[in-house]
Specification:
single chain, about 140 residues, Jelly Rolls, five-stranded antiparallel β-sheet, about 5% helix, about 40% strand, Cupin 2 conserved barrel domain-containing protein, RmlC_Cupin_sf
């Protein structure tokens, strides 16, 4: 843990879908890039280790996300105030939702795996849904 925050480790990014495996193109991209929170037309897999009692900023990424809790208990809360406690092996599927995460433990970190897949732009009630990463903006490069 770094000063009571989360540590995000990028496991593997891809620059497109379908993935280009010809001539090792995707491996080169993975080695040489520092992806943003998500990758336009691509994917990113990261492990986030949440510090004890950490309450993340609320944020939205315009992507389809799979979150898998590895250890500990994490609470996910949506902007509708709906929340769920997730335990090891539990999977969340987020469809560009405003959400935040909280580590329920005061003593132990809680790692989770997140797989983010870019999605087509879309609207709700005629209003285009936009990315809003709020206080996380300083943690990720622009995309």
């Amino acid at each position: 843990m770094v000063n009571g925050h989360a540590i995000a480790n990028i496991i593997y990014p891809t620059s497109g879908n379908p993935v280009n495996l010809q001539n090792d193109a995707e491996s080169k991209y993975a080695r040489e890039s520092e992806p943003s929170i998500h990758i336009k037309n691509g994917t990113v897999v990261r492990v986030v280790d949440f510090a004890p009692s950490l309450d993340s900023p609320i944020h939205r990424v315009v992507s389809l996300d799979y979150g898998i809790v590895i250890e500990g208990e994490l609470e996910i809360t949506l902007d509708s105030d709906e929340s769920r406690i997730m335990r090891p092996g539990d999977v969340s599927v987020q469809r560009a939702t405003m959400n935040k995460w909280r580590n329920c433990s005061k003593e132990k970190s809680a790692p989770a795996v997140f797989v983010l897949l870019d999605c087509e732009p879309f609207s709700v009630d005629g209003v285009e849904v936009k990315e809003n990463i709020g206080d996380l903006a300083g943690e990720y490069k622009e995309h």
